[in-house]
Amino acid sequence: MTKQENLNRWRLILGSYAEDSLGGGSENFPYQQIDNLLDFLYSREYGEDRGVRDQEGGLGPSQMIVPEWIRKIRQVFPKTVVERLENEALDRYQLTDILNDKKVLESMQPNMHLLKNILALKDRMNGDVLQTARRIVRQVVEELTKKLENDIIRSFTGRLNRLQSTTFRISKNFDLKKTISKNLKYYDKDLQTIIPQRLYFNPRIKRYNPWHIVICIDQSGSMLESVIYSAIMASIFSKLPILSVKLVVFDTEIVDLSGYVDDPVEALMSVQLGGGTNIGLAMNYCETIMETPIRTLMVMVTDLYDGAGYTPMYASAKRIVESGARLFVLTGMDEHSQGMIDKNAAKKMAGLGAKVATLTPDALAEWVAKAVAG
């Protein structure tokens, strides 16, 4: 490698503000376009207080704007690098305005990072942008479901070989009434017809003496990834004839999403992230919807930080366990099984008879399968 090539690489690593120190000029620097694209994003590290760039504008010498930046990085960088840059633009530098441009949104790589940002900002979207966001949510959710479904169902069928899939997508099982009801919001005034986003089918296997599972999810912002996986898991569980599933989300209020248990997209689009947390109130509600406690699994997905005080939460946990129901407290459910939790509350809940852990989705499936198999 020549001296100039070595200087060029260091210049690209250190950024435009190292140009004078390295004694180079633009005529000797062949990576100017790459540098401009990286500089557009990473110069935000300096901030206004350093006097380098007006962070609000973030335009640089070329007066680049976010949609143009998105288009150019896709031309210059490989897919893996583009995905990393997009994730950092959203998560680290809060360039959330890219989610309010339909064309930019359509051009972005559908993945968990984009899904989380859409869910966090969906209330600021409307019209075509919101419909585009909804399609992206469905695409990512379907990909995650495919990734998890076979292994999860296998966890059950290995223990209970009588289980079979309940969703046969054939014409004689088509549920016209439910399809119309669930898709009314997609009525097109110009075409004077409903454009369904999803078709629904009736299961032909009846549930005989099922186990009841209540999944109750803390929808505070810190639990977002767990909210996503919990909604998907509820949908997968609902396909198993041995399980009857209810889905509840909460902060200081409670929303029963059991009507959307088979449609995780609608469930996630109904979630309102942020706000306080009242775990005791949520657990009290879940007590009221338990059926046959001795055959009920209560799954609380929460970091156990209760803003309303811990006494009601502990009292409810004690009643649930004493009723014969099995109480699982998941302090996090994601691919990495990591998260901040209230350790003292976790110890107390375990002492009351709850099983407390942070699990990956497949581990939860194993847990539930063992409980059902007895």
What is the strand and helix layout of this fold?
Elements lengths: L2 H12 L4 H4 L9 H11 L23 H11 L2 H13 L10 H6 L4 H10 L5 H31 L18 H7 L4 E2 L4 E2 L16 E8 L5 H15 L4 E8 L3 E3 L7 H7 L8 H10 L7 E6 L9 H12 L3 E8 L9 H9 L3 E5 L1 H13 L1
Parallel strand pairs: 3-4, 3-6, 6-7, 7-8
Antiparallel strand pairs: 1-2, 4-5
Helix pairs in contact: 3-4, 7-8, 8-10, 8-15, 10-11, 12-13
CATH architecture of the largest domain: 3-Layer(aba) Sandwich
The count of β-strands is 8
N-to-C span: 66 Å
List the strand order in the largest sheet. Answer: 5-4-3-6-7-8
- Strand percentage: 5-15%
Shape: globular
Helical content stands at: 40-55%
* CATH level-3 fold name of the largest domain: Rossmann fold
Annotation field: number of helices:
15
- Please provide the ordered H/E string of secondary-structure elements: HHHHHHHHHEEEHEEHHEHEHEH
Which regions contain 5 or more consecutive residues with pLDDT less than 50?
48-62, 160-168
**Based on helices, strands and strand pairing, what is the structural class?**
alpha/beta
**CATH homologous superfamily assignment of the largest domain:** von Willebrand factor, type A domain
